[in-house]
Design goal:
Shape: globular
Largest sheet: 5 strands, mixed
CATH architecture of the largest domain: 2-Layer Sandwich
Distance between the termini: 22 Å
Order of helices and strands: EEEHEHEHEEEHHHHEHEH
Structural class: alpha/beta
Strand order of the largest sheet: 3-2-1-4-5
Mean pLDDT: 95
Radius of gyration: 21 Å
Number of strands: 10
Number of domains: 2
CATH class of the largest domain: Alpha Beta
Helix content: 40-55%
Length: 339
């Protein structure tokens, strides 16, 4: 194990999708966490990989420079450079990986590769309150839906995964069916708060064990709406709030049913949620209410740590630094990177 100096300064870079982010850490203290978003993708109804990677090229130097200035840290004070190796869009990952490798080589610093999904889980350790080990983390985003058993900072096991689409994709794709602009998930959450969650019933796929499936649910929503539109062409406009509330209820129920099962099977009452969908107000309410009912200790990150950000990369890198888990200059990004 590598002995760390008394104070460790880390620069962390996140570029897995369409957000360019840089964070600076002093040990496990977040000094700066800046994100540059890419609104251009709204015009196309989803992230365009080529455009995302080009935007990362434009954003990465200004974002890193701004983060360093906000933290008040000079480059020669850094002890390591961390970056997201995957999973994610390969072009976007390549920009962050290449920048991190070049900067580390120039400064003579070690590199730390970070798994994006592992980082979402460890976002809970950026600030208090922090879960105790072992705990379960429901990690839900646009590309992933997982139940993770977390035994320690770097010892995690995926207990359940999606067999097809992710929960975040289910939100965005059903929003598209409703004619809502991208990203539609936050809009479903917004309108759901004005509607009746039991107004409509849709099909929910049955999957054994702790795995998830959302593809059939999206199809059920599509067919149900198409059937109603034959009688009322303005059906969506007349029922938008209730449709959003009902869609949100179904997705949350599918998530919570599996999380309850996992908690019971593993006899764990330390329960956390993470990932972009953990910003959903309905899910945040559901986990708190379920926690009160079942005696769980529940943990929900602050909004800025739910979506993609470099702070979660930085906190993960800190624990990897303490264990001397460095990577080499020949490292390359990977689109699929299991915990």
């Amino acid at each position: 194990m590598t002995q760390s100096p008394k104070t460790v300064y880390l620069l962390a870079i996140e570029s897995s999708c369409d957000d360019t982010s840089a964070a600076v850490f002093r040990n496990d203290e977040n000094l700066a966490n800046l994100v540059a978003t890419q609104d251009i993708h709204r015009l196309y109804g989803g992230v365009v990989p080529e455009m995302a990677s080009r935007a990362h090229l434009q954003n990465i130097i200004p974002v890193v420079d701004a983060a360093m200035q906000k933290a008040g840290i000079a480059l020669d004070q850094l002890n390591a450079i961390a970056f997201t190796r995957g999973p994610g869009l390969i072009g976007s990952l390549l920009v962050g990986t290449t920048f991190a490798k070049g900067l580390a080589l120039t400064l003579g610093l070690p590199l730390i590769e970070v798994n994006h999904m592992q980082a979402h889980v460890l976002a809970h350790f950026i600030e208090d309150p922090k879960p105790s080990f072992p705990f379960l983390c429901l990690t839900v985003s646009g590309g992933h839906t997982q139940i993770v058993l977390v035994r320690s900072y770097l010892d995690m096991e995926v207990l359940g995964n999606t067999t097809d689409d992710a929960a975040g994709e289910a939100f965005d794709k059903t929003a598209k069916i409703l004619g809502l602009p991208y990203p539609g998930g936050p809009l479903i959450d917004k309108y759901a708060q004005l509607g009746n969650p039991k107004a409509f019933t849709f099909g929910k796929p049955k999957v054994d064990g702790l795995d998830f499936s959302f593809s059939g649910f999206k199809t059920s929503v599509l067919y149900a709406i198409q059937k109603q539109q034959k009688q009322d062409p303005e059906f969506i406009a007349h029922n938008l709030n209730d449709l959003c509330a009902s869609i949100q209820r179904h997705i949350i129920e599918m998530l919570m049913d599996k999380l309850e099962l996992a908690a019971k099977e593993h006899n764990i009452k330390e329960i956390a949620i993470a990932g972009g969908v953990s910003a959903n107000s309905g899910l945040r309410k559901a986990i708190n209410e379920t926690g009160q009912r079942l005696g769980w200790n529940t943990y929900i990150p602050r909004f800025e740590y739910c979506t993609d950000n470099a702070a979660m990369i930085g906190i993960t890198a800190y624990y990897k630094y303490l264990k001397g888990e460095f990577t080499t200059q020949d490292v390359s990004p990977v689109a699929r990177y299991a915990i």
